[in-house]
Each structure stands twice: as structure tokens, then as C-alpha cells.
């Protein structure tokens, strides 16, 4: 086994870290205060190559792959979980086009998504619950309008990250009246008549990361909007969520755990108690040790799962393990970091309060912890 | 000499992120530890590299011969990542001098090693450094290097551009900016705030894959173990003192007038403002 990353990824980590510290960190207080995503950051992320990391060079990306993506998310997530979440969902929206798009669709959408001209998302979850995507009520039907053949979409998606930002949305819908249900995915562009963002959610954490509804009312999209073969939509969407969405949440988790470790270690080195820094106290050292262990175990699971993805190996179970462990560990790490800070950990002046609020939303995103354990358990029981 | 060829010296330093001061081992050895830590290009030298990358474009646009940027680093093998980082930022070529015998080298030996490496490749019209490194901070390498290369030295320039067959540089002198013309070849140190350094892009990392990175040992430069490292260094660090530790802010309370009096007393107590007229008593 070789646990080294190699020159490209070592440099990528440095570059992503510098990007986050230079361009993201100054925006964190603004996002916390205004709860709005700074759109100008999208172009900067595109220019730096963070959006196109999984897009091949012929479509404007670098094609560095999923392990590279994991490192990018860890570095951005260490500075802002909200920006990492937005970024990871862009990657998630890009993936079905990369893996299932026609050459025309790739040429039409990927260059803009790689450079930050456009923002992507995936719209699967509905009020019927994200854990059971087969129960979605959004429908599609074939129709010809003004001589153009296409599809008509009707329905409402909820809890969609980037809902109000996205220019390119991959939508999962069921064929109207089909029994058994037949699912297909469509690429819907912002501005399409009958397609609009709905309610914008106000979350406890991940301030500045946009979450909301997407509404389709008699929304006509052209024939070429169908993504992948008709009837294959559920497989395409679920695979993207399982292997890219969950990987992304693991990456967000890694970033947040590292932020917890760094803030707790720095505070403990400065804070004096009994005439010495509190990092000399065994009770504090055990907390630092637990956060460090959370980071390293999460990294091992996440990096390996991402490496498998880069090898073209199915990795749904490994991604579920990585997602579960990294996001649960992020919640624990945030609590421990706050404890190291004592009462300061609950004050708005310290970042630990943000880590506590942000980490909690990692748990249900891209599949709850219970769903992750069911995925893992099934793979063991089969 | 290729007028457009630029050499930039970049020091690989321990990544300052998360550092809270000298480690126990550093306090004992009186050396900055470069083992087991990430080494990154020094921030001040990144400014010099940024200046070089921008001037390279001007040199190329002016049709100058061999417009290119070569970075020179000295450090342990782990400094290769810092060298690659410079390539990813846009340098055309990197040369890392790495040899166990170099451990403990002072500023003069560092300048000697870099001068040999620059001389070995030869033909540079412009040699740039930062003003001082963020860890050692002697500020001696740039001027020593220029002297060893037999070049005129322009310290602390805030801007430089091609003009005719030479350079025009700006230097801040008190509250004014002075412009100087300089004939090539010439050496200069670039002021820390002069050029905000770019961050590497992922595309830059991919493009840098094929760029040459040469690793040289002392023997390649005609230097013996006795001439370098602690053995060859005429200066030595004898003591390390904490810097910047302790409380950073003291809150003053009371009315504005009371706060002003307390502040004045504090400043006097620290040796500031003692002789100023009109100071509150």
C-alpha cells in the first residue's frame, strides 16, 4: 500500500487551502450575518478549478478526479462548511451529466459548469421524504408544443441545495400514470417557463448555503433535456447521490473535523489554567486525541472510497461508510471542540458555535445516518 | 546573457499555519525544524515570484531574449513540493539544491550556494529575492547573493517594469516613491507588500507536470562539506527568544478621559511617548 498522494494532490491541497483562506475566509462573517451565498465566489471557484475537478479537460475541467475532489472539499470545508456544501452539490449536479450525458449535453453544459459561469444542482427529494425516492410525485409526460417535441414536468422539490442559485438542474421525475413507476432524469435550465425556485429555507446552520424548493408547473423542456435513457433516471440519480453526494458530505465532514481540531488545539495552547496551558492537562489531551482520531479514521475511509471511485470500482458501501463516519464524527468533534473552549465555545465570537450548528445538517444530507447503516448492513447481509 | 531570463530565489519554510511558536526541539537545537513538516515557499519570496511572473510577460511582449522564470531553492528533499508549487504558480523551471551537508547553513552560506546554482545555469538578466524570510529573517541573503554574483543590488523595490533595454524600479523612500533606472544584469529584493501573490489553480498544477525540476547536490556546484552547513558558516544562532507571545490586548476601562490617561501612562511605561509635548500626566 502507498498512502502518499503524489505531487499533483499535494499541490492541490495547498492550492485549495490557499484559495479557501484567501477567498472564502473573508466571506464567512458576511454569510453568517446575511445568510446569502456570495455569487461572486462562483467565478473565483471556477477560475481556481474547484468546480471542474471531475470534468475532463476536453470540457474545460482538469479531470483530476474524486480523490482530488475530496481534498478540495476538506480544505474548503475547514474554512466554511457552507461553501463546501454548495461546492459539493455543484459537483453532484455535474456528475449525472458527466456519466450519463450525451456528447451534445456535455458540450452544452460542462464548460460553463467547470468555469463557474453556471451553477448546478440535483433535485430528487420531495415532501414525501428523501429516504424513499421512489415515492416522488413529480411527473413527466411526452408532449409536442408548437411543433417541438419534448416533455412536460409538474411537481415540487424540497430541501434542494443551490435551489435559488442553480442555472442547471438535474431533475428526477416519474412518468405520469406509469405502473410500475418509471423514472427518468431531465436537465432543466433556470429561466425555463414554468420552472422557478419556491420557498427559501432558513436553517440553524450552514448560513449562506442556499436551500429551498424548486417548483415545476406545466414546465415544457425540449426532447434533448432527457438525461440518459428514458426509464433509467432512478439508477442515474441514485448512483450520483450514493457515490458523489455522499462522498461530498464525507469531504464536508473532514473539513469540519479538521477545523475543530485546529481551533481546539490553538485554544488549548493559549488558554492558561493552573498556571500552564490547558493542553498540558490530560483531560484536555484526551479530547484533542478523540478529535484527531475522528479526523484520521474519517480520512482513511473517505480517501479510500474516493480512490475506488477513481478506479472505476463500484463503491456505494464504502461511500456510505465514509459518509456515516465522517459526518457523525463531525458532530462529535464539534461538541468536543466546544468543550475544550469551555464557556467560550458557546459564544458567537468563537467559531466552535458555528461548527456545532453546521455539523448537524451533515447527518440528513445525501442520506441519513440510519440509511447509511442500512446500506452498509445490506452489503454485509447479502 | 538572456535579458529576459529571470532567476527567483525561494526559501522553503515550515508551513506557518497552526504554528504557535518554536517547538521544544527548535528551542534545543536553535534551528528551525524542517523535518516532518510541510515546507512551503516563503510568503515574501512568493511576492518576488509574482513580480517575476508579471515582468516575464512584459519581457516577452517587448521581445526580449529568453523571457522565462527559473526558481532556485535550497532545502531538504521534502522541499521538492515547494519547488513544484512554484512551477504550478507559473515558473518555467525549478532548481532545488538539497544535500545533508547544508544543514545549519547561515545566510552567507545560503547566498553562496544559491549564487553557485544561479551561476551554473547562467545567463540571467534579473535575479530577484524577497526582502527577508519569515523564519530566519536576517535580510542578508539578497544583498550577499548580489555581491557574490557581482551584480548591482536594488533593495526593497515596490514595482519593476521593462524600459528600453533595462528596467525601471520603484522604491518607497519615506512618504515618496523614487524611480530608478537599472541596466541588466541586476539583482533586486522585492518588498513584501509589492505584488499580492496569486494562488495556484488546478489547471496550473496540471500544466506544471512537464516542467523541469532539477535537484542538485553540493558536489554538483563544486562545494565541499567543509564550505557549507554549520561547518562553513561564519555566524551561528546563540539564543532564541519568544516573539509575539503573551497578552496581545489590554482593555482599558472608564471614561474616555480616564482611558486616554491610562493609555498615555502605559505608553510611557513601555518607553514610548515619554518626551512628547502635551502628553497627559
Overview of the structural elements:
The complex is a heterodimer of chains A (382) and B (281). With 382 residues, chain A is an alpha+beta fold. Chain A contains eleven helices and ten strands. In chain A, helix 4 packs antiparallel against helix 5 and helix 7 packs antiparallel against helix 10. The model of chain A has no long low-confidence stretch (mean pLDDT 96). Chain B has eight helices and eleven strands. The C terminus of chain B is likely disordered. Chain B has 281 residues and is of the alpha/beta class. In chain B, strand 7 and strand 8 form a beta hairpin. Chains A and B meet through helix 1 and helix 7 of A and helix 3 and helix 6 of B.
Keywords:
heterodimer, A: 382 residues, alpha+beta, two-stranded antiparallel sheet, 52% helix, B: 281 residues, 9-stranded mixed β-sheet, disordered C terminus
Amino acid at each position: 500500500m502507498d498512502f502518499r498522494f503524489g505531487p499533483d494532490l499535494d499541490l492541490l491541497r495547498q492550492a485549495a487551502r490557499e484559495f479557501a483562506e484567501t477567498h472564502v475566509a473573508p466571506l464567512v462573517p458576511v454569510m453568517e450575518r446575511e445568510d446569502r451565498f456570495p455569487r461572486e465566489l462562483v467565478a473565483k471557484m471556477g477560475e481556481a478549478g474547484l468546480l471542474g475537478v471531475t470534468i475532463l479537460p476536453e470540457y474545460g475541467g482538469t479531470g483530476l478526479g474524486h480523490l482530488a475532489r475530496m481534498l478540495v472539499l476538506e480544505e474548503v470545508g475547514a474554512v466554511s462548511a457552507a461553501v463546501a456544501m454548495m461546492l459539493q452539490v455543484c459537483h453532484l449536479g455535474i456528475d449525472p451529466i458527466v456519466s450519463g450525458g450525451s456528447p451534445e449535453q456535455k458540450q452544452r453544459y460542462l464548460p460553463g459548469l467547470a468555469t463557474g459561469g453556471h451553477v448546478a444542482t440535483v433535485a430528487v427529494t420531495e415532501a414525501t421524504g428523501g429516504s424513499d425516492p421512489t415515492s416522488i410525485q413529480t411527473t413527466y409526460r411526452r408532449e409536442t408544443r408548437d411543433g417541438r417535441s419534448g416533455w412536460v414536468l409538474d411537481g415540487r422539490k424540497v430541501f434542494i441545495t443551490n435551489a435559488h442559485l442553480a442555472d442547471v438542474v438535474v431533475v428526477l421525475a416519474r412518468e405520469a400514470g406509469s405502473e410500475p413507476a418509471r423514472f427518468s432524469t431531465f436537465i432543466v435550465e433556470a429561466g425555463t417557463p414554468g420552472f422557478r425556485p419556491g420557498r427559501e429555507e432558513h436553517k440553524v446552520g450552514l448560513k449562506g448555503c442556499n436551500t429551498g424548493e424548486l417548483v415545476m408547473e406545466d414546465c415544457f423542456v425540449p426532447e434533448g433535456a432527457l438525461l440518459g435513457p428514458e426509464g433509467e433516471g432512478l439508477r442515474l440519480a441514485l448512483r450520483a447521490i450514493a457515490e458523489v453526494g455522499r462522498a461530498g458530505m464525507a469531504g464536508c465532514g473532514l473539513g469540519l473535523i479538521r477545523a475543530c481540531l485546529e481551533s481546539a488545539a490553538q485554544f488549548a495552547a493559549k488558554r492558561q489554567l493552573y498556571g500552564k496551558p490547558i493542553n498540558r492537562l490530560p483531560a484536555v489531551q484526551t479530547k484533542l486525541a478523540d478529535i484527531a482520531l475522528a479526523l484520521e479514521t474519517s480520512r482513511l475511509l473517505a480517501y479510500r472510497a474516493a480512490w475506488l471511485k477513481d478506479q472505476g470500482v463500484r463503491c456505494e458501501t464504502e461511500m456510505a461508510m465514509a459518509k456515516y463516519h465522517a459526518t457523525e464524527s463531525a458532530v462529535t468533534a464539534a461538541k468536543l471542540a466546544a468543550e475544550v473552549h469551555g464557556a467560550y465555545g458557546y459564544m458567537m465570537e468563537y467559531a466552535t458555535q458555528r461548527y456545532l450548528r453546521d455539523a448537524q445538517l451533515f447527518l440528513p444530507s445525501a442520506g441519513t445516518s440510519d440509511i447509511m447503516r442500512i446500506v452498509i448492513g445490506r452489503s454485509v447481509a447479502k | 546573457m538572456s535579458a529576459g531570463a529571470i532567476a527567483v530565489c525561494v526559501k522553503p519554510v515550515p508551513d506557518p499555519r497552526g504554528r504557535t511558536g518554536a517547538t521544544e526541539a527548535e528551542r534545543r537545537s536553535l534551528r528551525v525544524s524542517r523535518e516532518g513538516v510541510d515546507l512551503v515557499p516563503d510568503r515574501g519570496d512568493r511576492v518576488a515570484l509574482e513580480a517575476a511572473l508579471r515582468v516575464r510577460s512584459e519581457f516577452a511582449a517587448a521581445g526580449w531574449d529568453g523571457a522565462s522564470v527559473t526558481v532556485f531553492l535550497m532545502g531538504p528533499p521534502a522541499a521538492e513540493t515547494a519547488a513544484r508549487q512554484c512551477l504550478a504558480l507559473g515558473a518555467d523551471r525549478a532548481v532545488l539544491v538539497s544535500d545533508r551537508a547544508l544543514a545549519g547553513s547561515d545566510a552567507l552560506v545560503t547566498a553562496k550556494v544559491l549564487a553557485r546554482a544561479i551561476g551554473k545555469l547562467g545567463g540571467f538578466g534579473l535575479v530577484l529575492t524577497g526582502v527577508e524570510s519569515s523564519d530566519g529573517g536576517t535580510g542578508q541573503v539578497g544583498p550577499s547573493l548580489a555581491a557574490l554574483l557581482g551584480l548591482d543590488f536594488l533593495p526593497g523595490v515596490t514595482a519593476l517594469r521593462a524600459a528600453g533595454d533595462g528596467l525601471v524600479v520603484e522604491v518607497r523612500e519615506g512618504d515618496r516613491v523614487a524611480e530608478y533606472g537599472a541596466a541588466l544584469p541586476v539583482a533586486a529584493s522585492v518588498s513584501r507588500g509589492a505584488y499580492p501573490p496569486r494562488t495556484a489553480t488546478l489547471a496550473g498544477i496540471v500544466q506544471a507536470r512537464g516542467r523541469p525540476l532539477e535537484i542538485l547536490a553540493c558536489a554538483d556546484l563544486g562545494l565541499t562539506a567543509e564550505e557549507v552547513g554549520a561547518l562553513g558558516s561564519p555566524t551561528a544562532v546563540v539564543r532564541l527568544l519568544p516573539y509575539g507571545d503573551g497578552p496581545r490586548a489590554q482593555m482599558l476601562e472608564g471614561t474616555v478621559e480616564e482611558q486616554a490617561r491610562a493609555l498615555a501612562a502605559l505608553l510611557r511605561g513601555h518607553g514610548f511617548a515619554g518626551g512628547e509635548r502635551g502628553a497627559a500626566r
